[in-house]
Amino acid sequence: MQIWSVPCTSRVRLDGKIAVITGANSGIGKETARDFYRRGARVILACRNVEKANAAINDIKSKPFRSSRNEKLEGKLGHLVVYPLDLSSLQSVRECAQMILAKEPAIHILVNNAGIMFAPYEITEDGFEIQLQSNYLGHFLLTLLLLPKIQSSSPDCRIVNVSSVGHMFGKIHFNDMNLEKSWSYIRPWKAYLQSKLANILFTKELEHRLKNANISGINTYSLHPGVIKTELGRSFNSTIIPGSTLFYKYVMYPFIKSPEQGAQTTIHCAVDEKVANETGLYYSECQVTRPSCSATDDQVAKDLWNHTCQLLDLELNENFSVFLENVSHQFDEVIHL
Known about the structure:
single chain
C-alpha cells in the first residue's frame, strides 16, 4: 500500500459531459476513465491499441466501483467508446481529431494522459524523437485541433496535461530537440524529462494565450500523478540496466502507487469544483504545487510554443483566435488531400 496518497474528494456528477482521455486502455488513464464513467460521463478512450481499449471498456463496465468510497457517486453510469489514436503518428492524430469533431457534439474535458517513459531511442515517421512526439507534440496538435469544439462546449471545460515531477531535471533543447547530439545512453532519460517539462510549459502558455484572446470557460492544468505501477516501466531493462523493470515492479512496490491512486490528481483537476476557479497551474497530491523554475519561465514557454508550431508547420499568429482558425484551415486541407 502506498504510504502517501491523497484521494480526490469531489462527488460532482458528469452527466451530459463528454470527456476525451488519451492512453486510457491501461494505468491511470484507464482508472480516470472508470471514474468519469461512474460519474455519468460519455468517455472517449483515445488509444493506439484498440483491442486493449475494448478490453479496458469490458473491465470498467464489469467493475465500475472498486471501493465502497466510490459507490457514493450515486446516479446513472455513463458511456464508453474507443477512438484509435497513435500519438507517434501526426496523421493518426489528425484522423482521430477528425472523427471526434465529426461524431461528438461537444468536448468538456480533455485529458492528455498517454505517454511513454525512457523508451529506446527512435525517430518517428514524422521525423521526431518518439518520446518528444508521443508525450508532447502529438498532444499539442490534438489539443489545438479540438480547441474549437472545446470552446463551443464551454463554460467549465478543462484541459488536463499529465506531466511528472521529473520535469525538474528536464531542459528544452531548442537546438537539438531530437537529442541527436546527446550521448546515446542518456538520450531516453533526457527525452522523457524534456517532454514532461514541455507539458507544463504548454499548459502555462495555453492558459496565457486563452486569457489574452478573452476566451473564457476553458481552464488548463498540469500535474504529477506520483510514481505509479503501470506499463511505463516496460522499457527499463533496455534503457537503464538489465533487471530494472523487475526492480521497479517488485522491489519498489511498497513505495509505488496503484493506478487508481495515481489517477486521483488527474481526476481532481478534471472535476473538482474549487479547481474550476484555477487555471494554468501545476498540481500534485490534489493540490497546487510549485513546479521547478524552468517550468515557470514565461519566455521559455513562449519560445517553446513558437518553436513547436514551426516543428509542426503551423502558421504563427499572435492573435490566438486567428491562429486557431489558421490551424483548422490547415487541418482541413491536409485531411482532404
